[in-house]
TrEMBL record:
Belongs to the dTDP-4-dehydrorhamnose 3,5-epimerase family. It catalyses: dTDP-4-dehydro-6-deoxy-alpha-D-glucose = dTDP-4-dehydro-beta-L-rhamnose. Keywords: Isomerase. PANTHER family: DTDP-6-DEOXY-D-GLUCOSE-3,5 EPIMERASE, THYMIDINE DIPHOSPHO-4-KETO-RHAMNOSE 3,5-EPIMERASE. This is dTDP-4-dehydrorhamnose 3,5-epimerase. It holds the Pfam family dTDP_sugar_isom. The record marks 136 as: Participates in a stacking interaction with the thymidine ring of dTDP-4-oxo-6-deoxyglucose. The keyword Isomerase applies. Pathway: Carbohydrate biosynthesis; dTDP-L-rhamnose biosynthesis. Homodimer. Its EC number is 5.1.3.13. The active site is at residues 62, 130. GO terms for biological process: dTDP-rhamnose biosynthetic process; polysaccharide biosynthetic process.
Length: 177
């Protein structure tokens, strides 16, 4: 597996090696020793979630207050534009974001370290798997508007309005979080 740092460097893009022949293929999606060496995280997955979205759905930017949750995200069906935003108070990269297309074809995953917000745009109908380092706690959840002008995330919407949940429509701006 190839690991590439992004900016901010606490977000990693993981590209697996695919072993293919006429029968199909095998991909190593996760290996604890290599992951720990790259990220320093040596815990266990506390929760695994799966979400399905129609093309045009935008989810996020979501986070857990307290900044303790890391996540490993992958699209197992379809394509997404996956975004991580540094929300760590005092971080030199606070408010900086990075984005990558994850798909069933490139099989890439995004490691989003603790203290980051996360969101994605469904570029096609998709299924996304999230592996979480800590359980989801509803009363600790927070959200920042997807179109926060301070963040100025370059969503590939191609002139269309995203499909949003009521929660995401009502999300606040980063400056008031």
């Amino acid at each position: 597996m190839r690991l590439e740092t992004t900016d901010p460097s606490e977000v990693l893009l993981l590209t697996p090696q695919v072993h293919a022949d006429e029968r199909g293929d095998v991909v190593e999606c996760f290996r604890a020793d290599r992951f720990a060496a790259a990220t320093g995280w040596r815990g266990h997955w506390a929760q695994v979630n799966e979400s399905r979205s129609r093309q045009g759905v935008l989810r996020g930017i979501h986070f857990q207050h307290g900044g303790q949750q890391g996540k490993l995200v992958r699209a197992v069906r379809g394509r997404i534009w996956d975004v991580a935003v540094d929300l760590r108070p005092g971080s030199p990269t606070f408010g900086r974001w990075t984005a990558h297309e994850l798909s069933e074809h490139n099989r890439q995953q995004l490691w989003i370290g603790p203290g980051f917000g996360h969101g994605f745009l469904a570029l096609s109908d998709c299924t996304v798997i999230y592996q979480l380092t800590t359980p989801y706690v509803p009363d600790q959840e927070g959200a920042i508007r997807w179109d926060d002008p301070t963040l100025a995330i370059d969503w590939p919407l191609q002139g269309r309005e995203p499909i949003l949940s009521e929660r995401d429509r009502q999300a606040g701006l980063l400056s008031i979080q």
